[in-house]
Specification:
Helices cover 28% and strands 22% of the residues. With 741 residues, the chain is α/β, with parallel strands linked by helices.
Amino acid sequence: MATGSDEEQDETSIHQTPLRIPELLYVSVKMENPIVAVAGNLFPHVFCSSALVGACDSSRALSMERESASMWEFSFVVPQNHEALDFKFLLKPKDTDSPCFVEEGPSRVLIGGALQDGATLASFKLDNDQAVEYKVFVQASRVSSFDLAASWRAYRENFHPSAVRGIPDVSIDSEPQTEIETVSSVGLELDLEHYVVPAPSNSAFEYAANLTENPRSLNNSGSGSDYFSIGDDIVSVDQPEKEMEFNTLDPSRVHQSSKLVKSQSVGTMSTLRMEHGQRGPFVDKGVGVPRMQKCSSLITFTADPSLEPDTKNSFPAAAGAVAAGAIADQMLGPKEDKHLAIVMVSLPARGKTFTAAKLTRYLRWLGHNTKHFNVGKYRRLKHGASQSADFFRADNPEGIEARNEVAKLAFEDMITWMKEGGQVGIFDATNSSKQRRNMLMKLAEGRCKIIFLETICNDVDMIERNIRYKIQQSPDYAEVSDFEAGLRDFKTRVTNYEKVYETVEEGSYIKMIDMASGRGGQIQVNNISGYLPGRIVFFLMNTHLTPRPILLTRHGESQDNVRGRIGGDPALSEAGELYRQKLAKFVGKRLKSERAASIWTSTLQRTILTAGPIGGFPKIQWRALDEIDAGVCDGMTYEEIKKNMPEEYESRKKDKLRYRYPRGESYLDVIQRLEPVIIELERQRAPVVVVSHQAVLRALYAYFTDRPLKEIPHMEVPLHTIIEIELGVTGVQEKRYKLMD
């Protein structure tokens, strides 16, 4: 079955001589009647004594169309090097067989789109010997064959109006449409798991700390070995490197038994190891709306200018405002401002690693070269994963020296990466004392700009649950079989940090205070300026940890899918009509217990029609969710693009991410206009069903799965398939449902 309407994979390349498409002339001949009363029952025609390239045959009269009350027009298209065309005007009486009145004088001659002899009046002699004159206007414009085809499609659409015109941008059906229940062929199995299909192999769930940058200063001494060389020492590492700290949400649901804890949002559960070593499900719920508070302090951290050379990869692979902001910041700001270090600050188990991972994903998706450096990885590789709480005491000089050493190693690795073209480094550690932060600022002088990002949580119940989760997940306690012993040790570690903890008051900083407590929160910012830092603050204001699913699906198969044409605004095919009914059934079953879910579509009728039968939820149309604009190629097949625009076809084939259709968009343009959609999806606390198009869904899917930009144009987003993205405290998980072939 054809699936060609949206952006598709590249076709087999061709080798042929580029074909130059000649421009055409669009000729408009107009006649103005200044005496409407005299000739009100006479209608002008054009009498051609030579062919007008398919518009008329020899010796044939064609009607002129009324443009206004006293203006008539006749239009046609000819090649630029057309033969001379001669014609005359005539007036034909309405509803009578009376003879016509032919223009007096010789025929008019049109050459190269211009009227010869500059004749601007058409004279007629009527039956009563009265003479009337009409003003004549001739205008010729050059037009490409593609523009002409687009105009013709638009013209035809006026005769075949969209089936969704008149539907408001925001609407809601109180109940599902009954047509679904009357069609026996659209029934679904009661068990939705029947429709689950494998997700891409590289979309498997991983914890945030596992995705951080691998230490380059701690080189692997052998392939497949668990030993690493550090200077002259060899260190054995028994456990995989993973560390995760989560700021979980609902203090009333601290997990202490094997009972199921069900999400109030979507009814999904996660599995955790219990105190006795078994596994149990775990879910947390919502957060309040933060309020913005500007700090009165204006302490400014400045760094000395550096002679560090510009890197060729310092600008992001981005478009629009992202690119403009990055260029302005990097060209007008100090040298060190070309590189930004977000230095995390918090006590353990306050959610800093999870926040760092989300911020990394967001900045990468926008096109900024961003990496996440987790100091815990360095510590475990350098000193082992089984350090007791005594290692973290403030009165343990050996422990302090060891922890500062790995922090310096991680920071230097980050600076080295920045010199190679990196733009934003997320430095993930507790950094809980002024002494540690001053050390980092000295390391950053003249090399990068530092913004401290502090996460503060004052909810003791939430902290308790976060600590328990960390004992279950952190490799620091993987070898501790006694859960309670591990719990006591980690709480002692937290107490050691609390004794010396100092909140951030120096330099540029962002403070997130009780943002995930479920009772609101606040953000404090100090000395924050520039496009990118501003975007970071805006993103952090809208992010939270409420578990909920986001369902992504393309529209049902369209008529242009069947024809293999891209773009356009076609209606659904028979298969598409069937899918929209199956989709309504699926959404009704999957979200049957939800009251706050919403349905988002583009403004194109194939998505609006697909979502039409879904009842009971608000439907919102987003212009930002429209398919990638194919420009002059809109409505063409790829074979037509190969034949008529081989240079454009080859340019697109070489770099689909950056290729921009003539008068259209690139994938980077699509990403730029989708940023408000991403922010709103992050802000939503209830399920959202997004019915959109292939290029758009590729970009959204890449954001949630943290896929590289270069992969976006080649991701698999098939028709009639639902991609469920589960967002929550444990990260992002994916499930796919194939409702029909």
